[in-house]
Design brief:
Layout lengths: L6 H10 L3 H4 L7 H19 L3 H5 L3 H4 L5 H4 L9 H22 L1 H21 L16 H18 L4 H16 L5 H26 L6 H24 L1
Helix pairs in contact: 1-7, 3-7, 7-8, 7-9, 8-9, 8-11, 8-12, 9-11, 11-12
Family: Belongs to the peptidase S54 family.
Membrane topology: Multi-pass membrane protein
Keywords: Hydrolase, Membrane, Protease, Transmembrane, Transmembrane helix
């Protein structure tokens, strides 16, 4: 999975568009990003060494109905037989996270990542066909969450007046990979991307409103996004059991 180019310039533009007192509060070390990478690596090693561990964290639409925590655990697991799966995802995560986490702040960045991961799992279930093999096949991977970070960059680029043309190119390449290679859950990529795009837009609107002296509504909006994802998931399961 390819990462976005021109990261240094984007970081510089973001910094230029924020007041000095805000810039001083930005953490310089991408702690959340490195923590996610460490957790994913530990989970992958657990899959290799512990029999049955993979089956306990993977997500399938059928089992997700009864074990909803898998919508998040699956986002920290990867194909145990392919080091390239985790390597590409972690490289893409690092390439985005190294500038996005300091830009948004750790808490907002973590919320964006987790909501995108949830959105990826929800997208996978919403587009799955009950009764098909895909309904009972487990999937894993951080790709949905990473696509969410990609999606969030678009409103961030717009916020600072930067061109998003290069990011659309990155998305096109990764979308082509998703649809051409086997055993890739493109539905999760789409769900994560749309969730990240929405969350990123809401965050940028909240930033602009805060600058105008209005209350910061970031967290209420993010809570609504999470609620909407959960309700859509419950609706899907209700319809499939009817």
């Amino acid at each position: 999975m390819a990462g976005p180019p021109s990261l240094v310039r984007v970081t510089e533009q973001w910094t230029e568009h924020h007041p000095p007192q805000v810039r001083r509060l930005r953490p310089q070390l991408a702690v959340v990003t490195w923590t996610i990478i460490a957790v994913c690596a530990a989970v992958w090693l657990g899959e290799l060494m512990l029999p049955g561990f993979y089956e306990q964290v993977a997500l399938s639409p059928a089992i997700g109905r009864h074990e909803p925590w898998r919508f998040l655990t699956s986002a920290f697991a990867h194909d145990r037989y392919s080091i390239m799966h985790i390597a590409f995802n972690m490289l893409a995560l690092w390439s985005v996270g190294q500038w996005m986490e300091p830009a948004l702040g750790r808490a907002r960045y973590a919320a964006l990542y987790l909501l995108s991961a949830l959105g990826g799992g929800v997208g996978f279930v919403l587009l799955a066909n009950p009764g098909s093999r895909g309904w009972v096949t487990g999937v894993v991977g951080a790709s949905g969450a990473v696509f969410g970070l990609f999606g969030a960059t678009l409103p961030m680029y717009k916020h600072i007046g930067a061109s998003s043309r290069s990011m659309w190119g990155v998305l096109a390449i990764n979308a082509a990979i998703s649809f051409t290679l086997p055993n890739i859950a493109w539905q999760a990529h789409l769900g994560g991307f749309l969730t990240g795009l929405l969350v990123g837009q809401l965050m940028m609107v909240a930033v602009r409103e805060t600058w105008r002296g209005k209350p910061n509504r970031t967290w209420p909006w993010l809570a609504l996004v999470g609620l909407a994802l959960i309700l859509s998931l419950l609706a899907k399961y209700a319809l499939t059991s009817a």
